[in-house]
């Protein structure tokens, strides 16, 4: 929409939320500081689209180069295969006894996290004294672009039909397709296919399911993520941290309506852990502290819009997400939601957004490595400004 209409809708949103003082401001000049000039509502197609992001071939090459250029300090392996047979990779760096498991692009059209992860892997694998010290204290395992098929198609879902699921799990013949199946594109929202019991076997009576219930591991991509998680759990006892990097719609503001919010984060994915069995290692406070580490790393960059991050809605109850299922098993869970639908943003803004994810995730890993994350205040999490939705909401987690 045009800048004029955007300002009008911002004003009406402000009124709805009772912040009428800002509405008066927002009806003035849109470049007067209320809205940072680099921010927009994401509907003005810039033309550069996804050209700034690596495609699957480039990603694979970049990972191989990382392994070679670091002399194997960044160890790249094939963790599994997508439904269309593309290799899904892990990149592992460090020897510390704390482990951070990072997953990017479970939604194929959410690309900033992959770019940030590639840049961080380069830094973590470098010869610098800081990188060497970090590697002694932490192990980072990254799946850069879990949904490699969706990435090639620039779609949220993977590329798999319900018939293919039934072929893999004949006991599901006659069951209703799972609720997260999109028959129009022929794919599943992988981020509803998780279950806290890593050994769960799909049963017909558990379909079609719904968003308030657990998933099934019917997609090869979720199975791959689970297999990596399970092997890390066997190695480390607990997978200390799990980070999932996503994108949300562009149109969010901070709750004072002073600024657009380029990033939302969250520790909250489960309403009632007891609803899904006994999970004694579930630790909401550890998740909150980890999110505070992200928040503080970005607040240090306060002069820029990096400091304007917000909390993702805390009413979220999504046990079938990777975040929800892994958090139940004892991982501190951290959601990043970068405010952009990548096809709408220009390369300059995409570069800024990827840098922001890099700064926040890098700050978390630093805080894990030096142990400072353990002394952060959970109250600081609750004080993070909440996200205000501007019109035309898009898909979330
Ligand atoms: Zn997403």
From TrEMBL:
The keyword Protease applies. The keyword Zinc applies. Residues 1-23 form the signal peptide. Its cofactor is Zn(2+). Keywords: Carboxypeptidase, Hydrolase, Metalloprotease, Protease, Signal, Zinc. Residues 52-397 form the Peptidase M14 domain. One of its GO terms (molecular function) is carboxypeptidase activity. It holds the Pfam family Peptidase_M14. Coiled coil: none annotated. PANTHER family: PROTEASE FAMILY M14 CARBOXYPEPTIDASE A,B, SLL0236 PROTEIN. Belongs to the peptidase M14 family. This is M14 family zinc carboxypeptidase. It comes from Streptomyces yanii. The lineage of its organism: Bacteria, Bacillati, Actinomycetota, Actinomycetes, Kitasatosporales.
